[in-house]
TrEMBL record, chain A:
Reactions listed under catalytic activity: heme b + 2 H(+) = protoporphyrin IX + Fe(2+)
PANTHER family hit by this protein: DEFERROCHELATASE, DEFERROCHELATASE/PEROXIDASE
Protein name: Deferrochelatase
InterPro entries assigned to the protein according to its UniProt record, in alphabetical order: Dimeric_a/b-barrel, Dyp_perox_C, Dyp_perox_N, Dyp_peroxidase, EfeB/EfeN, TAT_signal
EC code(s) of this entry: 1.11.1.-
Dyp-type peroxidase C-terminal domain: residues covered: 217-399
Segments for region (Disordered): 208-230
Record organism: Nocardioides currus
GO cellular component assignments: cell envelope; cytosol
Needed co-factor(s): heme b
Residue ranges constituting the Dyp-type peroxidase N-terminal domain according to the UniProt record: 53-205
Cell compartment(s), UniProt: Cell envelope
Name of a matching Pfam family: Dyp_perox_C
GO molecular function: ferrochelatase activity; heme binding; metal ion binding; peroxidase activity
UniProtKB/TrEMBL annotation, chain B:
Primary site of residence: periplasm
Family to which this protein belongs: Belongs to the EfeM/EfeO family.
Domain EfeO-type cupredoxin-like: 13-112
Signal in keyword set: yes
Domain of life: Bacteria
Coiled-coil blocks: none
Keywords: Signal
PANTHER family: IRON UPTAKE SYSTEM COMPONENT EFEO
Protein name in the entry: PbrT family lead (Pb2+) uptake porter
InterPro entries in alphabetical order: EfeM/EfeO_iron_uptake (IPR050894), EfeO_Cupredoxin (IPR028096), Imelysin-like (IPR018976), Imelysin-like_EfeO/Algp7 (IPR034981), Imelysin_sf (IPR038352), Iron_uptake_EfeM/EfeO (IPR053377)
Length: 412, 385
């Protein structure tokens, strides 16, 4: 059954248009990485296996379903078995195939839940991570807890909901079709029943950062371009310096080729923001709204000049977001951001429950997130309109080799 | 203070703004009122040296390498009709100004120094009657003077009531301290946007526990609030007399420092207008949700005080808004009344019920009324400058 693609199935049941694509699909998926689509050379599928996990430097897809899980058993073997099963299912789904092989036995529920039948893989990537709480005494991992997998401190203004924070494991599913991303998390959760339970999950739409240069910088819900300074996938030496973990001892040797993922659910008081003058909004951000140019001049990708003075001090307010988040204000650190906008409906008083689900991959949160966020939380003008309501930090193991499971080095 | 004449001048020309926009100009004439300006190191190129009187938009692009400014000056070359500052290299900023028929001087000022690169400009006679009324400068001066007096008066009362509060608190008279707490804070909340402009004092006086970073010392009103109403705290250890005195004296000292600085403040009409909206923003963020007075649940006192301050600011500007945009003035006026009617339903004795006694429906109604007022209020600044 492993050769059956969802699109192949679709062709079989006669939907127009997808059948032809399925031919190339079945033949091409196992080759290294990707398959060109009909229109050009951009990949339409990504490979689970490789030096690093997918879903980090991969071009950012349009949609996200992120889930954190708690492990319900103390049995190490069950946990390892789950990671094996997740790895296999993830590889299948990323290739556009069902999560499990048996989808036709009449007297049993199908191995795959079915809502992605007929849909292309939609550039699905599935990325796994381990939270600090996994390294307690349940699984004998206490001496493998990396020093950098800290408990994040309380930042000024934090209003964290424990039910939206932390977790033993995480799964980040990104795809261009929300149904495909949700399908992935749903099927992995189903495979995990008895071993893990979902602690919290978050849907995201409208990517707020790019990892490639040829895309337009997307906008967050404040209406501003976000992530102009983001690390791009072709900046190899910067990725090595700022994203990938450099193992230093026995505790984090298993993290070679991996990273740390900071996840923050950042609510925006959107209705109040929308009432601020354009001058005030641009002053808070430090960039123009339409173009995204720094207020010191030029166009979006020109370097901000924090010294350039206007009538009443620097054109870019030192308390603006761009001034405080810029690498020059943070010991040169850069982040690989992969966040999404979110709207989880409305609150009981009719406000949007909305904001930015911030995801950043970094080499060490102690140098690459905590100092920056400490500064932003106490000085950033934008903080007036933000409230962090969820928080988690995960260690993201390195890439998976065919035949292995995610995080295998940790359990070796 | 240096900006006030400019504001006044711009204001006097903004009188018939509403009439202009209602009176749609023909398309070609509309284009004639859009003027592009290119400001380089040694030139100030306008796409036109004359335009029909009315609402003119100068779209100023900085093609040089220094920060630039653009001015529309009266024929005497001194009085600023309107201006746009802080245009970074490569950026474009629009200056919209209602311009009566007459002669003007334009000036680009690359590098922000000297007299700038000047040229004559003419607003020609047009169908759009644009009038400069006398007396607007007086309206503005009156509004500024009145608002400064209000802030000064509230500051004096804040000092007096804070003294009463800290005296009761230090004496261990918790009942009296609890009674005076929301009353004293009323004077803070009425001028909250002004008080917050002292970025060093605000966190020491009004920080909530969650605003702190690890290692910060929590001081100010809310520290003592928690001590007086510890019911929602877990394993709370009450402060001893010495600690009480420390926090109380600290608050009093900061309040007195605030009072010494307030008389030096100057205001502009757009600051007052934005401050009015800012007070409603404070209501929306902290009060309507019951987050501000987490321990005492006296949020409705703060709510009323913010609304009081916003109303005073608006009332001071009202004569100006009524001339510039009568419909906006009416809308804001009636929405203040609607919000006040809802707040009045929550009164109890000389004060207000506890936030916890509000029903979900009441919270929703208050929140909707705040939104209804805040939206037109956010347009106030543009209507008075």
């Amino acid at each position: 059954m492993s050769g059956v693609s969802r699109r192949g199935l679709l062709g079989g049941i006669g939907a127009a248009g997808a059948g032809a694509a399925a031919i190339g699909f079945g033949a091409g998926w196992a080759a290294q990485g990707s398959e060109p689509d009909d229109a050009g050379s951009a990949p339409t599928t990504f490979d689970l296996y490789g030096e690093h996990q997918s879903g980090i430097v991969t071009p950012v897809q349009d949609r996200l379903h992120f889930a954190a899980f708690d492990v319900l058993t103390d049995d190490r073997e069950s946990l390892v078995a789950l990671l094996q099963a997740w790895t296999v299912a993830a590889a299948e789904m990323m290739a556009g195939r069902p999560a499990g092989p048996d989808i036709s036995s009449y007297n049993a529920p199908p191995d795959d839940t079915g809502e992605a039948i007929g849909l292309p893989s939609s550039r699905l990537t599935i990325t796994f991570g381990f939270g600090r709480s996994l390294f307690d005494d349940r699984f004998g991992l206490a001496d493998r807890l990396p020093e950098a997998l800290v408990e994040l401190p309380h930042f000024p203004g934090d209003n964290l909901d424990p039910a939206r924070s932390d977790g033993d494991l995480c799964v980040q599913a990104c795809a261009d079709d929300p149904q495909v991303a949700v399908h992935a998390v749903r099927n992995l959760a189903r495979i995990g029943f008895g071993t893990v339970g979902v602690r919290w999950s978050q849907l995201g739409f409208g990517k707020t950062s790019t990892t490639t240069r040829d895309e337009q910088t997307p906008r967050n819900l404040m209406g501003f371009k976000d992530g102009t300074m983001n690390l791009k996938s072709d900046e190899q030496s910067d990725l090595d310096e700022h994203v990938w973990v450099e193992p230093s001892d026995d505790r984090d040797a298993w993290l070679a080729g991996g990273s740390y993922l900071v996840a923050r659910r950042i609510n925006m008081t959107i209705e109040i923001w929308d009432r601020q003058t354009l001058q005030s909004q641009e002053g808070d951000i430090g960039r123009t709204k339409a173009e995204g140019a720094p207020l010191s001049g030029g166009t979006e990708h020109d370097d901000p000049d924090f010294e350039l003075a206007g009538r009443d001090g620097p054109l870019i307010d030192p308390a603006s977001h761009v001034a405080l988040a810029h690498p020059t204000a943070n010991n040169g650190v850069r982040l690989l951001r992969r966040g999404y906008n979110f709207v989880d409906g409305s609150t009981e008083i009719g406000r949007l429950d909305a904001g930015l689900f911030f995801l950043a991959y970094v080499t060490d949160p102690r140098s690459h997130y905590i100092p920056m966020q400490t500064q932003l939380a106490s000085k950033d003008r934008l903080q007036e309109y933000l409230q962090h309501t969820g928080s988690a930090l995960f260690a993201i193991p390195g890439g998976i080799a065919p035949g292995e499971h995610v995080g295998q080095a940790l359990f070796a | 203070m240096s900006r006030i004449p400019a504001v006044a001048a711009a204001l006097s020309l903004g009188v018939l703004l509403t009439a202009c926009t209602e009176n749609a100009a023909p398309a070609d004439e509309g284009d004639a009122r859009s003027i592009t300006v290119e400001s380089s190191a040694d030139a100030c190129d306008l796409s036109a040296v004359e335009a029909p009187a009315g609402k003119l938009t100068f779209s100023v692009k900085n093609t040089g390498t220094d920060v630039t400014e653009f001015y529309l000056l009266a024929p005497d070359g001194l009085r600023i009709v309107s201006e746009v500052e802080n245009i970074g290299p490569g950026l474009t900023r629009d200056l919209t100004v209602v311009t009566p028929e007459g002669d003007y001087i334009t000036a680009c000022k690359p590098g922000m120094v000297g007299d700038g690169i000047r040229a004559d400009f003419t607003a020609t006679k047009s169908d759009e009657a644009v009038d400069v009324s006398a007396g607007d400068t007086e309206l503005v001066d009156q509004a500024l003077t009145n608002y400064a007096a209000y802030v000064g008066d509230q500051t004096d009362q804040l000092v007096a009531k804070t003294q009463e509060f800290v005296d009761a608190y230090k004496a261990g008279d918790d009942e009296a301290a609890r009674a005076i707490y929301p009353v004293a804070r009323t004077h803070w909340e009425r001028i909250e946007t002004v008080a917050e402009s002292f970025g060093d004092l605000d966190p020491m006086m009004d920080a909530r526990e969650a605003d702190l970073a690890p290692g910060d010392t929590w001081t100010g009103w809310h520290r003592m609030e928690k001590d007086l109403w510890p019911a929602r705290a877990e394993d709370y250890t009450p402060l001893g007399a010495k600690a009480r005195a420390k926090f109380a004296d600290d608050l009093m000292a900061n309040t007195e420092e605030l009072a010494t600085r307030v008389p030096d403040l100057t205001y502009t009409v757009d600051q007052i207008a934005n401050g009015s909206r800012g007070l409603l923003d404070e209501v929306a963020t902290g009060k309507v949700t019951g987050e501000e007075e987490y321990w005492s649940r006296t949020d409705l006192y703060d709510f009323q005080a913010n609304v009081d301050g916003a109303k005073v600011a608006f009332d001071g500007l009202k004569p100006i808004v009524e001339k510039n945009d009568a419909a906006l003035a009416d809308q804001i006026t009636s929405r203040f009344e609607e919000l006040q009617a809802l707040l009045d339903e929550t009164r109890e004795g000389d004060g207000f019920v506890s936030y916890d006694e509000l029903t979900q429906d009441q919270v929703r109604q208050l929140s909707d009324a705040v939104n209804a007022l805040s939206e037109p209020l956010s347009k106030l600044a543009a209507a008075v400058v």
